[in-house]
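Appendix B, example 12.
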Amino acid sequence: MKAIAITAALILATSSAYAADEPTFSRDVLPILQQHCQSCHRPGEIGPMPLLTYEQVRPYARAIKRATEAKKMPPWFADSSVQHYSNDMSLSAAQISLLGTWSDAGAPEGNPVDAPPPRRFADGWNIVEDGKTPDRIIQMPEPYQVPASGTVEYTYIIMPTGFTEDTWVTAAEIRPDNRRLMHHAVLYLRTPGSRWLHEYPKGVPFVPKHRPGRTIRSSDGDRQTEGSLADEWLADYVPGAPPFTLPGDTAFLVKAGSDFVLQLHYTANGTAGTDQTRIGLNLTSEAPRRRAFVALVTDGSFKIPPGDPSYSATARSVLAADAQILGAGPHMHLRGKAMTLQATYPDGTTEMLFNVPRYDFNWQQLYKFGDGKQAPKGTRLEIVATWDNSAANRHNPDPTAEVKWGDQSWEEMLLSMVTLAIDPKADVTVLFEKPPRRPVPPPAVRP
């Protein structure tokens, strides 16, 4: 019996040493999945399969190895070497190696006792703790009918906020009722007296008519010409991206009597369906130290030549007031290839805020700077975008076309969303310097 006990002890010691050398799901892999993957890979979210338990993960061990080694997953496209981002979900080289080693070893489960507690997710809304609801919920009055096929133009619906006094919003979230049909959604504020989309009724979905004389195809009714910068971008929804969270001392301002303007981009997927999107808001009764404002650095005058594999264009804006930059992200369409955003400060120093060398239209991400970066008055924000309009781009709708600005994915855009923190009393309509007027050449002198 003593010999048997000694043999058993040796076997146990050997297996324990082996377990320490080889990664297991419970001890090593599950914590990585909880931190980097489960926000999307769980029931009801965009991930095609849940990755919560060993039984769910084991069949995909090899696929996880391939996707992480190719850096396709988790979806993170900014170059993290140029900047620190508080929402960086990319894996380290050590984590990628561990997942590969675990897969090659046969994906052992290990001892379930070693597993961390299951991660808890909000049931429904992401801007509140589990079981609670936002302070204010506004829903589309009626479900929107999305056809089974064809192009669905950008659709808008105007909904009164119902606010009878100026209100500070600490968090906003758009929750589509049917995520399979929603490509993206944007929530704007329309201030009292604004002429933006003034001819359309409230509570009824509509597609704005193209404005005569416009050289670019855009459906928003010329928000910043018929309205102003005060008719601002408040929140957006894109698959796989959580709501943008603000620091505790920062909030959006909604003026009394304002309207919400909800922009909806549905994509037909072969099956007709309905959607009745909701908006959730968290409110505060105290004025914050800083006001949040989403600025767009953009230029719609580009023309991408047919077949060009690497066409670039720029857009720039100059701050006319002090601000802090909380986050920023690129936006292009199917021909988008790469984008950078650089800040040039008044003292002449420059800083790369993001470099996205491998843009992916399917993942519209914002890169966050924690509590913010100081951007004094006079700071110039400049984006450089590059598109691939060649036949080598497998996503290219038509490499023979000259491509201009437009809403649909076969057209293009050039913009970066930049979330700022500014003085609560600042006039956002003069937040940026007006671009210099182009010099008018003198009239020709007749001989």
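Residues 2-21 form the longest helix (20 residues). The chain is about 15% helix and 30% strand.
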